[in-house]
Amino acid sequence: MVERVGLYMANLRPKIVKLAKMVGGVAGAMNRIDEKAPEYYALNAVVTDDMADVALVMGLRQPRTFEYIVEKCGRSREETKKLLDQLTYTGVVKVWTDKKDKKDRYFINIFAPGMLEMMVNNREQLAAHPEIGKAFEEYTRKRIAPMAPLFPEGMAMMRVTPVESAVKDLPGVQPWEKLSYYLRKYDTFSVSDCSCRQSRKVLGEGCGHLEKDICIQMGTGAEYYIRTGRGRQVSREEVLEILKFAEDNGLMHEMPATDGLGESAAICNCCSCSCFSMRIATLFRTPDAIRSNFTAEVNPEECVACGQCVENCPTNALKLGQRLCAKKPLPKTEEPTARDHVWSKKNWNMDYRENRQDVAEEGTSPCKTACPAHIAVQGYIKLAARGKYKEALELIKKENPFPAVCGRICPHGCEDECTRGDIDEPIAIDEIKRFIADKELDSDVRYIPPKRYHLGNKIAIIGGGPAGLSCAYYLAIDDYRVTVFEKQEKLGGMLALGIPSFRLEKEVLNAEIDVLKEMGVEFKTGVEVGKDVTLDELRKQGYEAFYIAVGAQGGRRLNVEGEDASGVVSGVEFLREVNLGCGRTLAGNVVVVGGGNVAVDVARTATRQGDDTVKMYCLESRKEMPALDEEIEEAEADHVEFQNGWGPKRILTEDGKVTGVEFMRCVSVFDEMHRFAPKYDEEDTITVPADTVLLSIGQSIEWGSLLEGSKVKLGRGNTAQADSLTYQTGEKDVFVGGDCCTGPKFAIHAIAAGKEGAISIHRYVQPGQTLTLGRDRREYHAFDKNNVAVDLQSFDNTPRQRPAHAQEKKGTFRDDRMTFTEEQMKKETERCLGCGAVQVDSYMCVGCGMCTTKCKFDAIHLKRTGHSKPDLYEKLPVKIAANAVKRSGKIAASSVKTTRRKD
């Protein structure tokens, strides 16, 4: 909490009270001014009594000449000029030169929007008096709260202006409804920091959207900002670049609407998680006050539920729902609105910065829900179907920088949940993704994401596996100086050293890592942090945050007799040796212990390292094996023999070398809660001869000396304890992700964690930002597939496509799975049922048009739903009164309807 300076005075300063009353205008007229009033303590911090005398003679919103002010205040010209200079410096008074008579005009605007922005945008002043930032937040919350439901539509002091591309082709659009009108109207422009985000920053409530050089001033506003150093002058072309940057990054446009039709001093580029004007819609739930004359409308037949519009909607008016008809639709609950209900604090959305919902109550596409990274599966499938492969790849990479890798090794939980699978077979999602991703293996056409910011803070990533590389990728988009430290000589972690080449050829992995190199990420291999360099030493080198993603690269022990004998090898160690090119040749009987995907990889690799048949023993039945069915089938094709329901009792040795394994029958693996709980029949045993035993019963985390002296705590399974949303540990500048945080999972889980880690680190190293406020929790849930009415005859009934296999020689480490042909890809994409679609809450939509810029399918548009016009601030009281009368009638009518329904 920012400490108030000089608030609790024994006596209020009368002149400051009077000035506070004057500038409070409509919002402050009915409020008592005391030492706790934001108008008072902001002005009290920087305005002397002499300055207040000069300001008071000017009046509110009246351009005054210097001669007028001198005459009215009764001071000398020199003293008056000095006081005016102080007032313009603080932001209480705005100044510009009249184009006709070339004389300066001095102007006092209302407190907000107007004066407070100018006070906040004096960086030095805000640093010395952070209570001004607090006043901005408090004034625009407390003073607007009782007025918010009373504003006529689009008649608050700020008003949304739609993205021009969203309205340029609509009939009847007025010139003043387009930003281009203002860019032609004015000839002087400046850019400044966002005053709302600066205020949030000094309060320690930043949302991760940065304030630097984002808001535009025009005409007299620009002249004032340039003269007082609050902003820098920019050309009209630079303004267009700033507006494009804003739209690319989901920042909507708002303009002060107090100077009459077609007049405004600024274009704000706002994020709803920090903007005080947008809070009228999001906190008070009174969006009509600031809305444009347009509302978004979705064509569900074209929508593919990619979610890009949902994630960028400032008011959370868009949500992902289902497109397929429900057998029994969920009953619709009518939410009260401020249009026709008595509105009070109980109707507000108090937690609007934390409770954002991406999915409608009914649920959305199972594929997007099931993916740990929530990739827009339906979206990239439809883009691929239209031949838009680069756009499809760009969409995938918003959530996953390694689509070519995942197209080969992902466990494809999305396919397991695919609605089509309940009819015949699920869509071959991974194969479609592989087809798209393989396009960029050619370095000449690969997709390199554009930079968003140019921040430059030094960040250290410890561990070059999927989580660390993913974190590096997303930090590099903001142009952080990222260094990845990897103790092995090869990058990729388990992708490189734990997965055999016949499942993931290393040139595929390296091609996707090369993208990170082109983005500026630095890699230091053969460096073990904790041993070769410590965290403290890296801090001294200027690294401001750390993302630890060392994986789980050790094997787990059986803790049975004979485990330390020669010839008993950890499965992950065996795979590492092979991938490093120093794998041992196997001879004689090879036994693999374990039943997961890694165990299958170990067994299939063993068949290529020796001539004899490899036998695989695991506790689970064939049906309960954790390994994927297709991997088991591929292992059987490699002549791996599966022996289910056996657990190792002891390892037999002779002269310190393994000779066999004694197994006992496992009679139960899972309890009634389906938790792993093996039970054995120790009387039912078999002895299996073995010259090599490869143990693959799980993985362990090897920290070494990395965490020595840190506050990072370890929990179950030796995993690092961290916040489940932010991944921050007990050491505030240390974040963790991947297997060393969650325990062994799939690469896609680590990739998703890497992106979240990057979001947290960005917020951590930028001053005044929180790790949570305004953050999308990305909580997804699928619709009930049992409640969907699907007519298969209305969809393509082509059977699922299967990738061909190359005629590779038995025993090679080449991946013999081929990528779909384009014809196969087209046929497979046609099988998608298109389960999801976006829904619009027309009440909460403010008509900014941001959604239209994110849609690749032309599925969402703005339509005209209003005809309001901005007017002079001085006319607002009358319009509020008229609207209040009209609204009272609606409230009365609504109350009658509610009573009748109850009766």
Automatic annotation (TrEMBL):
<keyword id="KW-0411">Iron-sulfur</keyword>
<dbReference type="Pfam" id="PF07992">
    <property type="entry name" value="Pyr_redox_2"/>
</dbReference>
<keyword id="KW-0408">Iron</keyword>
<feature type="domain" description="4Fe-4S ferredoxin-type">
    <location>
        <begin position="294"/>
        <end position="323"/>
    </location>
</feature>
<dbReference type="InterPro" id="IPR017896">
    <property type="entry name" value="4Fe4S_Fe-S-bd"/>
</dbReference>
<dbReference type="InterPro" id="IPR017900">
    <property type="entry name" value="4Fe4S_Fe_S_CS"/>
</dbReference>
<keyword id="KW-0479">Metal-binding</keyword>
<dbReference type="Pfam" id="PF00037">
    <property type="entry name" value="Fer4"/>
</dbReference>
<dbReference type="InterPro" id="IPR028261">
    <property type="entry name" value="DPD_II"/>
</dbReference>
<feature type="domain" description="4Fe-4S ferredoxin-type">
    <location>
        <begin position="836"/>
        <end position="865"/>
    </location>
</feature>
<dbReference type="InterPro" id="IPR036188">
    <property type="entry name" value="FAD/NAD-bd_sf"/>
</dbReference>
<dbReference type="InterPro" id="IPR009051">
    <property type="entry name" value="Helical_ferredxn"/>
</dbReference>
<protein>
    <submittedName>
        <fullName>FAD-dependent oxidoreductase</fullName>
    </submittedName>
</protein>
<dbReference type="InterPro" id="IPR023753">
    <property type="entry name" value="FAD/NAD-binding_dom"/>
</dbReference>
<dbReference type="Pfam" id="PF14691">
    <property type="entry name" value="Fer4_20"/>
</dbReference>
